[in-house]
Specification:
Elements (H helix, E strand, L loop, with lengths): L2 E5 L12 E5 L1 H27 L7 H9 L5 H35 L11 H14 L6 H23 L8 H24 L2 H11 L8 H28 L3 H6 L4 H23 L5 H13 L3 H26 L7 H19 L6
Antiparallel strand pairs: 1-2
Helix pairs in contact: 1-3, 1-12, 3-8, 3-10, 3-11, 3-12, 4-5, 4-6, 4-7, 4-10, 5-6, 5-10, 8-10, 8-12, 11-12, 11-13, 12-13
């Protein structure tokens, strides 16, 4: 698919041009737009299946009727109080993980980066460990604020380490700082849990990654963080297109490199932190989905972000439905299913094409 790039025109005083803006042929744009519409259709379909499938069998015709006309019956309560909030949570968590993964790979220019590279996942886990082991918090809604605080603290720590001294927080420095913070948090978490069997027993249900038992209050709590992260990521997409060609080229095209990296890190923290706080660490979604998006849409981050935002919830909600089917009358947690589905998908992508950012 042929793609050209151009810089936005400079100002009248001869100042630097704006961020690079990839341009594609009209036919390519049309194909990408059609692909987005197809992805939206797939997302609607898998969401309806998620509302339909559960431990109690309810005919789809009844489900469809209850969606628009709740009648207070037991089936209506199941649909509106349990299945719809669970599906909406899967939508938000999937969007957050997919977009944060694409943003992380663009920020670090590393095709193997995932949202946890800034220590967000381990930071959220540390917050949950503190809540359970030291404060006696025992419900998912209680974990959320601690997980968000832990994710934020870890992200700030990584960025401060990556920008220590007189140097900017370059991708390489961020990766090294993220690895160091992750190692420390990993040791802290398991050091606490190994000496507290009751805390470990509670923590293991959260850390596997699940959408079960999360209701409308968690969805409402998660929504503002995801919306702000989504808006921030898409605003940064043109600047990240420029930085993909290197910091010097980005500066020449008018990009404020340091500010762009700070804002991108904030977006990753908001998206991945909120998703991890709500559903626990869920692997491979943020790593594999952006590669599928680039395979379909090319290198333009605006299209990559759009496809990642839609494809990730398709994978996550579909995995949740599959876990309910395979584990009936119980269920297999979605974090386990995404690992089994995401790993082969990622390996197949690695074998078919080089993992490049441009």
């Amino acid at each position: 698919m042929s793609v050209e790039t151009r810089a936005a025109p400079g100002n009248e005083t001869g100042g630097p041009a704006g961020p690079v803006v990839p341009t594609a042929r009209p036919a390519a744009v049309a194909l990408r737009s059609i692909g987005l519409l197809v992805t939206v259709g797939a997302l609607v379909l898998v969401s309806l299946v998620s509302i339909w499938v559960g431990t109690r069998g309810i005919p789809f015709a009844s489900i469809w009727h209850l969606l628009w006309e709740p009648d207070g019956s037991e089936a209506s309560v199941i649909v509106h109080d349990y299945r719809i909030p669970r599906t909406v949570l899967g939508l938000l968590v999937g969007m957050a993980l997919g977009l944060s993964g694409a943003l992380m790979q663009a920020l670090t220019r590393n095709p193997l980066a995932d949202p946890g590279l800034l220590g967000v996942n381990l930071g959220a886990s540390a917050g949950v460990v503190v809540a359970i082991a030291f404060l006696g918090v025992a419900v998912p809604l209680g974990y959320v604020w601690f997980a968000l605080a832990g994710a934020a603290a870890a992200s700030v720590g990584v960025f401060l380490l990556g920008s220590s001294g007189r140097k900017l927080a370059t991708p390489d420095r961020l990766v090294v700082a993220g690895a160091a913070v992750t190692a420390v948090l990993y040791a802290f978490n398991w050091g606490v849990l190994l000496f507290d069997p009751e805390a470990f027993d509670q923590f293991r249900y959260w850390t596997v990654g699940s959408l079960a038992g999360r209701y409308g209050d968690i969805v409402l709590l998660l929504l503002p963080f995801v919306v702000v992260g989504l808006v921030l990521a898409f605003v940064l997409a043109p600047s990240l297109n420029a930085l993909a060609m290197g910091d010097q080229m980005g500066r020449a095209l008018g990009v404020h490199v340091g500010r762009t990296r700070v804002l991108a890190a904030v977006a990753v923290m908001l998206l991945c932190g909120a998703a991890t706080a709500a559903a626990g660490p869920i692997g491979f979604v943020g790593l594999a989905v952006p590669h599928v998006a680039r395979f379909v849409a090319g290198a333009d981050q605006r299209w990559v972000f759009a496809y990642s935002t839609l494809l990730a919830p398709v994978l996550l909600i579909g995995s949740d439905v599959l876990g309910r089917v395979l584990g009936a009358p119980g269920e297999v947690q979605v974090g386990i299913v995404t690992a089994f589905l995401g790993a082969p998908l990622f390996i197949a992508l690695c074998r078919r094409r080089k993992l490049v950012m441009l």
